[in-house]
């Protein structure tokens, strides 16, 4: 039988050891899922070996995440074909990185969010250890641009043609007009859409699609359309319009949960949303619209006034005249483009809402799909969204390249209770 003194000494040593030992916390692995037409280079800055990325350039989101106390965190990502195959098949490849029992956080961008959700909701038997999902600009409720982009692009090209803006650029002398210089540069690079647009917006749009290697009927695109079969399956809800007779006398869009695939309650979910996009975040914001209208009217009036002097100047003022005419025509077209963009791409929230590709409401995982399970992470403002201003959709040069995105990721990680011991 041990002496009481020895027992007391052993207890004191155990207490001292416990005081010195760091708190036991989870050190998560990070798995990155890139978006449509991107690769793991979007997150890592380089495409790794055979499309598998593990190390990152210093300025990337991955490198920032691995800084400081997170230096030892494991990171992984792989390049996946995102257009020719649908999201369900893409998720099978992503699941290969989700088989270990180690705690991990998935960071998805754009289509990568939907791929991740499919893996976690539908392929549960193939995934393990996932404790968190961070959605960055994810089209959780769909991206209207998928279905409306062709009509929108043709409308823009038609406006450019009708306005005569393209003709101004083509007819102007390169020595005097910047737009003509751009036109010549495009012609030299064998990009015919600039000239085709003058005669046929349809031909121009087709040329743009070919140059971008885009086929809008590819399953990777169509899966992201609002109301697609895949998004309907993942949303775990059934929605319909109903008329409230005798109360509000209005149609209401009502959604109710279905018995579809859900996220496990152990998966914490956070949405990083890009808003006030750079595409329409400048003069086209509502508070700047009067300034735009005034400038447009002034430039147009001045242009009309200068028509006669321009004709009689024998090219002495050709550069100024051409630039003035092109400017007011461009402003007119821009106003039309904004209206079409708001109607067909972003919707009622306004052209500057969202990130220029995905509407703000759609970027919220639980905001667009409240019945999918999981555990929402609450942001400091009390919502489930972590918003970033002036963020365009893109890749490493847009929302993924902003330092604020890194701060949001770190903030979310800590809110998930997965802080690495220092």
If you had to describe this structure to a student in words, what would you say it looks like?
It is a single chain. With 422 residues, the protein is an alpha/beta fold. It folds into two domains: 26-141 and 260-277 and 354-415, Alpha/Beta hydrolase fold, catalytic domain (Rossmann fold), CATH 3.40.50; 145-217 and 279-346, no CATH class. Helices cover 43% and strands 14% of the residues. The protein contains 17 helices and ten strands. Strands 1, 2, 3, 4, 5, 8, 9 and 10 form an eight-stranded mixed sheet that branches. The longest helix has 29 residues, at 318-346. The chain is globular. It starts with a helix and ends in a 7-residue tail after the last helix.
The largest sheet is: 8 strands, mixed
Helix vs. strand class: alpha/beta
CATH topology group of the largest domain:
Rossmann fold
By DSSP, the count of extended strands is 10
What is the first-to-last residue Cα distance? 41 Å
Q: How many structurally independent domains?
A: 2
Q: Would you identify the CATH architecture of the largest domain?
A: 3-Layer(aba) Sandwich
CATH superfamily of the largest domain: Alpha/Beta hydrolase fold, catalytic domain
Q: Please write the CATH class name of the largest domain.
A: Alpha Beta
Signal peptide: 1-23
Protein name: Triacylglycerol esterase/lipase EstA (Alpha/beta hydrolase family)
Keywords: Hydrolase, Signal
GO molecular function, one term: hydrolase activity
